[in-house]
Amino acid sequence: MKRRNFIAAASAAALSASAWAQDAYPSRPVRLIVPFPPGGPTDIMGRTAAKAMGERLGQQFVVENKAGAGGNIGTDAVAKAAPDGYTIGLAAISSLAIAPHLYGKLPFNVGKDLAPIALVGTTPCAIMANPQAPFSDLKGLIAYAKANPGKLSYATSGIGTSNHLATELLQSVAGIQLTHVPYKGSSQIVPDLISGTVLMSMESSLATTLQHVRGGKLRAIAVTSAKRSSALPDVPTVAESGYPGFEVETWFGLVAPAATPAAVVARLRDAWAEGAKGADAQAAFDNISANLRATTPAEFGAFIQAEDKRWGELIRKLGIKAD
Fold this sequence. Notes:
Blueprint: H1 2-23, E1 30-34, H2 41-57, E2 61-65, H3 72-79, E3 87-92, H4 93-102, H5 110-113, E4 114-124, E5 126-129, H6 138-147, E6 153-156, H7 162-174, E7 179-182, H8 186-195, E8 200-203, H9 210-214, E9 219-223, E10 249-257, H10 262-275, H11 279-287, E11 291-292, H12 297-318
Parallel strand pairs: 1-2, 1-3, 6-7, 6-8
Antiparallel strand pairs: 3-10, 4-10, 4-11, 5-8, 5-9
Helix pairs in contact: 2-10, 2-11, 4-12
């Protein structure tokens, strides 16, 4: 009896200590891993979230850029971190819904190793063309591609990226054949697109091309989101251009190691939800032509599962492999 009472008391004390630790969270700086280089749109989203959550939780959130492998290196670092709420990350569609179907083996399992906190932001892809291309809208692009199968090349920032898969989806629904030219990033694509080395690109970051569209060096053909982009209000969506239901957005969300206490995850989510209402956060997202989001963990988890199913089916259908 005494032994049972001791075990019960010890268990109660442990639970009480755990609850106290969660109530005191965060009691020291939190590391937020951004799996892409500094200065880009993803980095800006991460730093905006870090600032907003830090202000509301009264603790410093330190951004650490851990780039490589399309975001997989940084995401793996989050998956393998201690599940105490002091290491979280900003992960992207590439690691959470695409990479699991592209690679024969990943160092992390999205469903088992990561806990969703909140969807943070989305950006539409935009079909960009050289102004001298023999088409000025999506209808003309499709007609040209059908008349010249395989001759129209398109640039993306790599095999298996969201802009690559968005173009593959467009080819599938429109019944056209394009030639893929993978680059290492938009910084290399834009000069070639402006010079005419390639005539078309599916860009996943309007922030890198918007100035060239406004300056007449590039032509925006269509955006892939369900609604028109506020950054390009005169540019129609793919859905408006003859393909109802077509919708692709690059997305980013906060994640934690899988065993992170639910109370800590909830506190992080609530801090971001409050921060997302602030003028500073909205302005930061507007500056990179991104849509600000703030879902619950459950909503983000369901969203990841739906996106995983969608892109997994397309990748298997097309037989795309990255290794």
